[in-house]
């Protein structure tokens, strides 16, 4: 490795701009740089700049670049915004295939959007890669900077070379009567301002708030922890997000709990605000929209299967909890939470019929079919009975004379009955569906009249478990600590030197808030007879402004001619 | 190579390796989606106990040493209905060779299941998963789904969709003890 030896004798690694020991500029480039630029990272060699040999180093250096990091963030921002132009696939109607939906609704643009994968942007592999690249960039760029910065600040020397001091933004060089006394006064007064002061051999280094320099790195640590938390969601057992539909009266296994927990729904209710009973605040709104929901609620019971229990066994359930699940009032157990999110009112539960003589309209008995537990035979009055030959929960029509059902949900129940009566001991066949009565095998003497229906509600619940939340919280908190640390504290340093010929040199540097450090210097100089410290950049800026103003003036004068 | 440089290289390689491993894992998990949670070939078959239409309880672990042809079905499901007679035929052939057939209904009424079983003269055990926990345990999605379980209790194959009679013959052959 090439090394740079400074005039003072200190050997610096390649890439160093300011000697780590005395602060002399080591390269002509650094010598020509403006004062503020050269102090970035204390003029140390960033590790990425030192060599560029193997593939590993090339990859490392790529991610170490802040420029690359900024570009990654910009690209991610632009791409993320593209995902908001059309609804994501998660939010389109579930029954239409997405390739069809996007083209039908948004034309060629929708098609392109779908083909390019923007419909599921935030889960696409290349979007994930972008985020991952930002994460890697944050880690490597931080590591590459924080380590040398830490070393440089830890090992900084008190006595710096004159040329280093001259290059600082705040600088003054004055002749005073008794420079050592002035230095002693400065030291005392800086201590009053809670500076950490070191003095060696007529050199003085006063420092305050170094910890502010770690702000960005603390912040990045928080971000990384946050990303790790997000990543952990993919680890089995860390994150569960499932949907559970449950009918009133049913007990079903809770998905995601490994068949350990079961839920029973006793009842689902929707309540509305009542214009008379409830406070009048909603009356205007009720007038306007008709009705306003007050409460969605599932009265639920949570059961746990005994240890060693196996799937399917119904005897081993033990009641653990009873709770009314309401919106924002989930049922909580064992890191799980069950939320009320959806419902379906009035699903058919049972249907009642009366069997009557068609001619005389005499009622010979009634029967009720539980749609979830139909029976083979329904006994009626003496000598009369109805045998259920077929039950079709979601009747869609006939195929080859066979009634068809498209699902197990009783959306459109239909029945094939055989009706027995003293007149027809062999029975007569009747097919009954909603708004449909058929007598497929000839004219019957008896018929079943629809007599009533019983319904029940279905609750739509979400089962959620998230063991990563605290990690996200921790990451967020550390992130904010870093922001505060870097934003509300400044790293201020002052160098003072008394030369052999009796001059007093003072230079100051801060990472932000130059006004603050100038005030500190003014306080330190009090009573020493020293003139105010010079802000070299301010002078430069004023010169530029003056020059520009001068040019404008001369333009003005020419135009007047 | 100087020691320092060597140390630095090792450091960089290990940090990059950890980062790349994390990225690869995340990408794999996302792209595989929910599929990686599904029960699949090679897994141990979760034990269960369900009661058949004759009131007899069938526990999977009782069939250790035999192959188990485990079929999930519903009465409204056309392909399920179509493959049932084939299963019945092959059950007769393979039951003496140590292959048991169990048909798990996904929680319909006793009436419907019984009617269906009578209609197709099913002689193998037909059980009803009322609480749906066996379906959960086997991550059953579309019907019919059939699992081939070997005599050691390990899942050999998961078949989603309809099977022909030849398929059933070859599948049952696969799990003969």
UniProtKB/TrEMBL annotation, chain A:
It comes from the Bacteria. InterPro entries: Cyt_c_bgen_Ccs1/CcsB/ResB, ResB-like_domain. GO terms for cellular component: membrane. The chain crosses the membrane at residues 68-92, 125-147, 217-235, 467-489. It is a multi-pass membrane protein. It is found in: Membrane. The keyword Membrane applies. Keywords: Cytochrome c-type biogenesis, Membrane, Transmembrane, Transmembrane helix. GO terms for biological process: cytochrome complex assembly. Residues 66-427, 444-521 form the ResB-like domain. Residues 541-561 are annotated as: Disordered. The keyword Transmembrane applies. This is Cytochrome C biogenesis protein. It comes from Jeotgalibacillus soli. The lineage of its organism: Bacteria, Bacillati, Bacillota, Bacilli, Bacillales.
TrEMBL record, chain B:
CDD domains: TlpA_like_family (cd02966). GO terms for biological process: cytochrome complex assembly. Keywords: Cytochrome c-type biogenesis, Disulfide bond, Redox-active center, Signal-anchor, Transmembrane. The keyword Translocase does not apply. It comes from the Bacteria. Residues 39-177 form the Thioredoxin domain. InterPro entries: AhpC/TSA (IPR000866), Thioredoxin-like_sf (IPR036249), Thioredoxin_domain (IPR013766), Thioredoxin_ResA/DsbE_sf (IPR050553). One of its GO terms (cellular component) is cell envelope. The keyword Iron does not apply. One of its GO terms (molecular function) is oxidoreductase activity. Pfam families: AhpC-TSA. It is found in: Cell envelope. This is Thiol-disulfide oxidoreductase. It comes from Jeotgalibacillus soli.
């Amino acid at each position: 490795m090439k090394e740079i030896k400074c005039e003072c004798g200190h050997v610096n690694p390649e890439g160093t701009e300011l000697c780590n020991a005395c602060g002399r500029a080591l390269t002509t480039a650094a010598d020509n740089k403006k004062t503020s630029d050269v102090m970035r990272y204390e003029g140390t060699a960033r590790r990425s700049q030192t060599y560029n040999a193997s593939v590993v180093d090339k990859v490392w250096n790529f991610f170490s670049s802040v420029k690359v990091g900024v570009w990654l963030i910009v690209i991610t921002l632009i791409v993320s915004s593209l995902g908001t132009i059309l609804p994501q696939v998660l939010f389109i109607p579930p029954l239409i295939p997405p390739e069809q939906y996007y083209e039908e609704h948004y034309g060629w643009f929708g098609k392109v959007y779908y083909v390019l994968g923007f419909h599921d942007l935030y889960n696409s592999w290349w979007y994930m890669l972008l985020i991952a690249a930002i994460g890697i960039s944050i880690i490597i760029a931080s590591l590459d900077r924080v380590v040398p910065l830490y070393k440089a600040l830890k090992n900084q020397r008190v006595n710096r070379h004159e040329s280093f001091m001259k290059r600082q933004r705040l600088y003054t060089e004055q002749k005073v009567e008794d420079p050592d006394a002035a230095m002693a006064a400065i030291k005392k007064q800086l201590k009053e301002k809670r500076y950490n002061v070191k003095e060696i051999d007529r050199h003085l280094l006063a420092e305050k708030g170094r910890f502010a320099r770690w702000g960005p790195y603390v912040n990045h640590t928080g971000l990384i922890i946050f990303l790790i938390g997000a990543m952990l969601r993919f680890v089995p057992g860390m994150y569960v997000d499932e949907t559970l539909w449950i009918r009133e009266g049913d007990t079903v296994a809770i998905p995601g709990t490994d068949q350990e927990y079961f839920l029973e729904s006793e009842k689902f209710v929707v309540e509305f605000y009542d214009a008379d009973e409830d406070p009048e605040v909603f009356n205007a709104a009720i007038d306007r929209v008709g009705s306003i929901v007050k409460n969605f609620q599932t009265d639920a019971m949570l059961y746990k299967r005994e240890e060693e229990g196996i799937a399917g066994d119904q005897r081993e359930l033990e009641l653990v909890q009873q709770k009314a699940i309401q919106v924002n009032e989930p049922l909580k157990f064992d890191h799980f939470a069950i939320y009320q999110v959806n419902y379906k009112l009035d699903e058919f539960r049972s249907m009642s019929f009366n069997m009557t003589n068609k001619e005389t309209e005499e009622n010979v008995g009634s029967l009720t079919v539980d749609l979830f537990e139909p029976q083979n035979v329904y006994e009626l009055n003496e000598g009369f009975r109805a045998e259920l030959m077929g039950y079709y929960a979601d009747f869609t029509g006939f195929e080859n004379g066979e009634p068809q059902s498209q699902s197990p949900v009783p959306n459109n129940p239909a029945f094939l009955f055989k009706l027995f009566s003293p007149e027809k001991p062999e029975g007569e066949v009747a097919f009954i569906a909603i708004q449909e009565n058929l007598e497929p095998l000839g004219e019957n003497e008896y018929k079943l009249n629809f007599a009533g229906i019983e319904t029940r509600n279905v609750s739509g619940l979400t089962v959620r478990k998230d063991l990563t939340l605290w990690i996200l919280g921790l990451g967020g908190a550390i992130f904010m600590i870093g922001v505060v640390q870097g934003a509300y504290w400044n790293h201020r340093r002052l160098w003072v030197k008394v030369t052999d010929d009796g001059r007093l040199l003072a230079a100051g540097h801060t990472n932000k808030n130059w006004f603050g450090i100038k005030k500190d210097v003014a306080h330190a100089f009090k009573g020493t007879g020293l003139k105010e410290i010079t802000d070299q950049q301010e002078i430069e800026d004023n010169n530029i402004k003056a020059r520009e103003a001068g040019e404008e003036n001369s333009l003005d004068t020419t135009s007047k001619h | 190579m100087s020691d320092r440089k060597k140390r630095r290289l090792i450091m960089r390689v290990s940090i990059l390796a950890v980062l790349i491993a994390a990225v690869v894992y995340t990408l794999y998990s996302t792209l595989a989606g929910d599929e990686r949670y599904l029960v699949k070939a090679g897994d141990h078959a979760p034990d269960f106990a369900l009661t058949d239409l004759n009131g007899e309880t069938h526990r999977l672990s009782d069939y250790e040493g035999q192959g188990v042809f485990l079929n999930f079905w519903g009465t409204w499901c056309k392909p399920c209905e179509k493959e049932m007679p084939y299963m019945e035929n092959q059950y007769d052939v393979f039951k003496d060779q140590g292959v048991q057939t169990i048909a798990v209904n996904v929680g319909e009424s006793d009436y419907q299941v019984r009617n269906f079983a009578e209609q197709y003269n099913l002689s193998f055990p037909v059980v009803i998963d009322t609480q749906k926990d066996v379906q959960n345990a086997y991550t059953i999605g579309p019907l019919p789904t059939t699992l081939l379980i070997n005599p050691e209790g390990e899942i050999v194959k998961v078949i989603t969709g309809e099977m022909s009679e030849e398929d059933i013959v070859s599948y049952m052959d696969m799990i003969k003890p």
